[in-house]
Amino acid sequence: MPARRPLVILPTYNELHNLPELVEQILAALPDGHVLVVDDASPDGTGRYARARAQRDPQRRVFVLERPGKLGLGSAYRDGWRWALARGYDPVVTMDADFSHPPASLPALLALLDAGADLAIGSRYVPGGGIRNWPLRRRLLSRGANWLSRRLLRLPVADATAGFRAYRAHVLEAIDPDAVRAEGYSFLEETLWRVTAAGFRCAETPILFVNRTRDRSKINRGEILKAVATLVRLRLSRRPRLQQQRRPHPRASRGGAPC
Ligand SMILES: Nc1nc2c(ncn2[C@@H]2O[C@H](COP(=O)(O)OP(=O)(O)OP(=O)(O)O)[C@@H](O)[C@H]2O)c(=O)[nH]1
Ligand SMILES: [Mg+2]
Predict the structure, then answer these.
(1) In a domain, 2, yes or no
(2) Would you tell me how many other CB atoms lie within 10 Å of the CB of residue 222?
(3) Minimal CA–CA distance to 28: which of 103, 81, 122?
């Protein structure tokens, strides 16, 4: 059965200049999709905007989870997943709220799941993908993080740090949101590591990643150090045992590259 009832989770911290237009573009790209904004008490009022947008939505397609303070990107994903699973959404999409992940690529991402993948990744580093307007420093940081992740954790995808992903719900149930310990950006690598260990199938679709033009990046030196520490922790720990995981989805054999 093809996936249905998609939920797009948007973690936000100070994205007031991006969120309003982004929400409309997502709803237009996925006519049967819903949006969950996970906001961490953004000082610029992003959460207030999201609450008002949710309340005046006649079709009830927009929701907001307001958290008391900046608790980190990883924990925003984790709370969003729990919210999605408790309400039966499938698939569950994550994307940045700064227009770096193009809403127009959402149907292509979900098509990979319909073709049998368990996890679909919007990838900068497969043929056809790319990056626009990133300074050299950011390009090197991204390439370095990817190289290190793939090298240390043997993650067999081209873009292991991409936050633009669509998960089938059974994958999130199997890896268990609470088992992913990383709180910051390395939550993405740890999740992929667990998905890989469980034998689920990943597929990548090319995207053009565009550097944000509004509001500011939240990556800082502390986040980078925490990410490296997570990779080392995972490298030194035992891979999660397969028998703890659910069996891969039966459709998984029909599409996507094995991860
Ligand atoms: N809820 C929540 N969202 C966050 C937090 N940190 C970052 N975000 C959001 O996570 C997404 C990615 O953050 P960005 O600052 O764009 O990080 P990035 O895309 O890796 O870096 P840039 O390329 O510089 O934009 C954005 O939608 C942010 O608003 C956080 O602590 N809590
Ligand atoms: Mg960004």
Answers:
(1) no
(2) 9
(3) 103
- What domain range includes position 91? 7-258
Q: By C-alpha distance, which of 14, 56, 12, 4 is closest to 34?
A: 4
201 in a structural domain = yes
Angle 88-102-33 from CA coordinates, rounded to 5°: 25
Is 1 inside a domain boundary? no
The protein residue with its alpha carbon nearest to ligand 1, atom 11, reads: 96
Structurally, the chain folds into a number of domains equal to: 1
Å from CA of 100 to ligand 2 middle: 6
Our mutation pick for probing the ligand 1 site, out of 9, 13, 67, counting the most ligand atoms within 8 A of Cβ, is: 13
Cα 228 from Cα 69, distance rounded (Å): 24
DSSP tally for the chain: helices H, then strands E: 8, 10
Q: CATH number, domain at 11?
A: 3.90.550.10
- What does pTM read for this prediction? 0.90
Q: How far away, in angstroms, is 223 Cα from ligand 1 center?
A: 11
31 confidence band (pLDDT: 50, 70, 90): very high
Which range, of 18-22, 39-43, 176-180, 183-187, averages the lowest pLDDT?
A: 183-187
| Residue 161 in contact with ligand 1 by CB distance below 6 A | no
